[in-house]
Amino acid sequence: MTAQASNNAPMVQFLTPEGEFSVSKGLEAYGKYLNALTEDDYLKFYRDMARMRRFDVEAHALQRQGQLGLWIPAIGQEAAQIGSGYGVGRNDHIFPTYREHGVAITHDVEMMSILKMLRGVNHGGWNPEETRFHLYAIVLGTQTVHATGYAMGVAFDGKVGTGNKDEDLAVITYVGDGATAEGEVSESLLFAATNNSPIVFFCQNNQWAISSPTESQTKVPLYLRGSGFGVPGIRIDGNDVLASYAVTAKHMDDAREGSGPFFIEALTYRIGAHTSSDDPTKYRDQEQVDYWTTRDPLARFEKFLRRQGVGDAYFAEVEQSGEDLATEIREATFALKEPPFENMFNHVYSEPHPRIDEQLEWLKRYEASFEEGN
After folding, report:
1. What are phi and psi of 278, to 5 degrees?
2. 324 and 353, same structural domain?
3. What is the pLDDT of residue 93?
């Protein structure tokens, strides 16, 4: 399936695959967000997209070498994630699925925390209250329920539409095309609409729900999925980092100011496998992969930057930075120790609990019995 064949829906795009920039008539409300960007912002977008990809490639190699239990690739989706991530305000809260490595980068989540989680060292080593980036959701659609509830609470607490930029906040949740078929997503759209909650649903339509193509899941464009519940939506070119940034930024601002929920469908493509346990050659044609590879979001933005006069030295620096990152995470992964068994008892309850304490003490005695036997 190609972008042209995808329901022929209108789509917000600022950068063509050739890197040519323009703001079409009717998109001025989004264009103003781009007018505020500087060259430093452009360079940051590209650097983090490249960083995300190099991290992804190295993590996949580590999984193949037995260092990770699983890896969830996001190659091809860098523009959707980095652009959107930077469109989220510094007060806002983010509820991801399990593939939002790039969004994590934009909100200062330590990248090794993601690898530790997929190694089984922890269940997510970052603090959601500090990063505002909540923990990965493995069960499809559950994060949308959590996000909607959080957004409802934000509204109940009066932190929407006050005009106080230091206090007002909104919520964004990420979802894949396949998860939009889950009941939790429909329930979330309903509750968000009826409560006028300050939330943006960001759907990365990478066109494959594991092995099921989007056209087998829906007869209408996904950005219309929320309309029956009263949640308006829009489709963007998910391989255009500027579109991803501007549209996310505008609708997060709108939600923060009290306009209610919104749904963004970012049309992109998963170049790699669904996870490291998947073989996509079993269910999709190479011709389709080749089509989307020519629309690589990094290559597109590089063409744009070169049109702005950015030279070889910058791209060489970014490439070297990526290699340094790969070395760093490889060494750190091989150096990981097994977590202490006490960790499994931490955070079961918010307060100390006698039953948990009792179980911990039993396990300590059990472990010690092996040492005594020796």
Report:
1. -110, 150
2. no
3. 98
Contact 150, 169 (CB under 8 A): no
* Interstrand relation of 171-176 and 199-205 (parallel, antiparallel or unpaired): parallel
Residues 213, 352, single domain; the answer is no
pLDDT tens digits along 47-98: 999 999 999 999 999 999 999 999 999 999 999 999 999 999 999 999 999 9
Find out whether 330 and 62 touch, Cβ atoms under 8 Å. yes
Going by C-alpha positions, the residue among 236, 247, 204, 222 that lies closest to residue 86 is 247
> Parallel, antiparallel, or unpaired: how do β-strands 262-267 and 233-237 relate?
parallel
Which ranges in 89-168 belong to alpha helices (H)?
101-106, 111-119, 128-131, 142-156
Domain end point (choices 334, 349, 365): 334
Question: Parallel, antiparallel, or unpaired for β 233-237 and 93-95?
Answer: unpaired
- Report which DSSP code applies to 12: B
Q: How many CB atoms lie within 10 A of CB 340?
A: 8
Name the 3-class secondary structure at 265: strand
CATH classification of the domain holding 230: 3.40.50.970
Domain that holds residue 304: 28-334
Q: Is 274 helix (H, G, I), strand (E, B) or coil?
A: coil
- 320 and 364 housed in the same domain: no
Q: Please state the length of the chain.
A: 374
Residue with token string 């209108």: 10
Tokens 């069960």 identify what position?
Answer: 139
The sign of the dihedral angle between the CA atoms of 302, 303, 309, 315 is: positive
Q: Collect the ranges in the chain with pLDDT lower than 50.
A: 1-5
Does residue 8 lie within any of the structural domains?
Answer: no
Q: Are both 239 and 140 inside the same structural domain?
A: yes
User: Which residue has 């590879």 as its token pair?
Assistant: 293
Give, in degrees to the nearest 5, the angle at Cα 273 between 236 and 338: 115
DSSP assignments along 146-200, one per residue: HHHHHHHHHHHTT-SSSS-TTT---EEEEEETGGGGSHHHHHHHHHHHHTT--EE
